[in-house]
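Comment thread on ticket #2218

A.B. wrote:
> Attaching the input chain for the structure job we discussed in standup.
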Amino acid sequence: MKILIVGRGILGLSIAEYLSRDRYCEVMVVSSASHLPASAAAAANLATKAQVFARDPHFDLKIRGKLRYSGWLEDLRRECNQSDQPDLPACYRSGFGRDFFSDEAACSVQLKRVQQLASEIETRGLPEQKLRRSSPTSIDYGDEGWVDARYLLSLLEKVCALRGVAISEFDVVNPDGGFFGASAFDHLILAAGSHTPRILAAWGAQGSEDVFRKTRRWSHGGTLEILSPDWSMPEELSLIEIVPASGPVGKVTFSGASGRLLCSSVSVKCQDSGFSSEPGQADLSVIEEQKQKILNLAVEFFGLNSEAASVRFRSGLRLGFGHSELICESISIPARLTEKVSHSLIVAAGAHKSGFLFAPCIGELVLQKMQASQPAT
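C.D. wrote:
> Ran it. Output below, let me know if you need it in another format.
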């Protein structure tokens, strides 16, 4: 069975890794050189605020992904002979996430918002909610996490290469550009993140608006990486979120390992309404202002030595649909592609900033869609 995956971000590579476990699957991953995956600009925080159930239809998938993360990473590292290098704590942390508030009242409001009824948890047969008020102005959420985005993407590429997955660059926006003509594929999977709407529009895919039902929220942003040799995350914590009462920045989430402090709260809206396949223009000067304000906050809160610290910034285009957005959906194949692909096109799109949470499980969902699309015999 031949499978073509469009997109080499976290979802595309995770799907390729899962499907390539089957030696009867021939998997190829393609992407445009001009379409840098937003995954590479993510801090890849694995946060669910200690919730054990939610109205979000994908919430169970997030929890399942978090439970699998450590074992999944170890399996990938073992396959690449990287079990001891680098140390896992340098690229993955799991522990409490802690929110700091400006006053007790704000802390109480948040605690009331996230606290779930013990009776409902018991009725559903779910584990106890790991939530505690660690001080009058702070809340701890259990089982939060962080993974090094660039390390995980690199690890997935290495595993895929070892299994014979072909990874290439083509003009994926142009369906007549040649990459479909190389071979007849049995399944086509589109996992191109924020570039998905423009690709579907260029392909003339039917039913794409039914997949992306909610208004699109485009933003341009990324992760500020502060390198400070004297800084380290407190031992029992994996994430720290600071919620100012007011001021130039809203809540700011920090993660990372020793010597590296990451913050993905740098973002400016490109468009906040409508169903266009292209984002509006972003005021990138706002990005520069935010970077400086977040750096100042990190220096003040963590006591960093600003003269000894160095800063890097990784940016990308983000596209959010809200928490109700479907993760995997089959839609009609454009007529000009039907001769190359025998079954339906599968779109895999993570809800805004949740792709890394879905990564250990997304391949299973795609396989289920592929099996459902097989013609009856």
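A.B. wrote:
> Thanks. Noting for the ticket: The mean pLDDT is 84.
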